[in-house]
Amino acid sequence: MGLFSKFIAKIKGENSFAPADWQELESELLASDIGPTLTRELLESARKVKSENAEEALIATLTSHLSTESRLPITNPDGTTVIMVVGVNGTGKTTSVAKLAGRIKNSGAIVIVAAGDTFRAAAVEQLQTWGARIGVEVISGKAQGDPASVAFDGMKKARDAKADYLVIDTAGRLHNKSDLMDELEKVKRVVEKISPVNEVLLTIDATTGQNGLEQAKIFSSAVGVTGIILTKLDGSARGGIALAIESALHIPIKWIGTGESESDFAPFDPDAYILGILA
Ligand code: GDP
Predict the structure, then answer these.
(1) Shared-domain flag, residues 128 and 258
(2) Are residues 232 and 137 in the same domain?
(3) b/e per residue, 141-154, with b = 16+ CB within 10 A?
(4) Residues 36, 41, 43, 45, Cα dihedral to 10°
(5) What is the DSSP secondary structure assignment for residue 81, as one 8-state letter?
(6) Which domain CATH number covers 40?
(7) Residue nearest atom 13 of ligand 1, based on CA coordinates
(8) 92 CB within 6 A, ligand 1
(9) Is this prediction's pTM over 0.90?
(10) How close is the Cα of 203 to the center of ligand 1, in Å?
(11) pLDDT digits 0-9 by tens, 242-255
(12) Is 188 a pocket residue for ligand 1 (Cβ < 6 Å)?
């Protein structure tokens, strides 16, 4: 039995919780990565709930921490919609670029991808393979070349081809944080010489723990993140980190990744997510 149902059953049955039960609930909440602040608040609210409305009360407490920002994709009504995807290496950024492009293509729109993670040769190859598979054009430059110039070439191509969407992959090596942030700002600036970047999506690995909150803070202060792609939700992680990020930074989760294939990508469903944390 999952944490939530065990907890509800106990409240309903006994109307009181032994100290050891509270400790167990606390450690399970911490293990879900929602973080110490939310855990404390949830426990306080749980101590007050009455048996007959326990489910609603706990769901309401968690839901109140979700971002109230719109989760709808931002589009450009006047031309190509430009989406930049940023995130730390290994979080699933390149895979998410491909899945997102595939989804856009399947909706009937014309999409071009710019393979801007020029520092990781494998990322460019990975995207070219994906591009061939999903039938999407991938613009790439020289290995170790300037990511901003690849993004600019992609933008020019998208404008000339009157593409509906341009999705830009970016570098994610974090060994020098300020260099990376400067570079991402430059990519955005250079692309915006032609057309505004409408959406900046940040990939966060659901298994990453509290570190994800730190990543979200750094990226959002550098490039103004408009939404999160929560990846690897198919693993054992409950992905509580996303709630911690929404609660602290109000950035909405827009998409989830649940595996390695193209179809393992979907809009974020807040209700299902909250139930998943406590399931
Ligand atoms: P990047 O370095 O951030 O661009 O990360 P990649 O896109 O190369 O992904 C790193 C690894 O995570 C690859 O093996 C991907 O196949 C895998 N991956 C990406 N998204 C998901 C996901 O939603 N679920 C699972 N299980 N694996 C994923």
Answers:
(1) yes
(2) yes
(3) beeeebbbbbbbeb
(4) -170
(5) E
(6) 1.20.120
(7) 92
(8) yes
(9) yes
(10) 10
(11) 899 999 999 999 99
(12) no
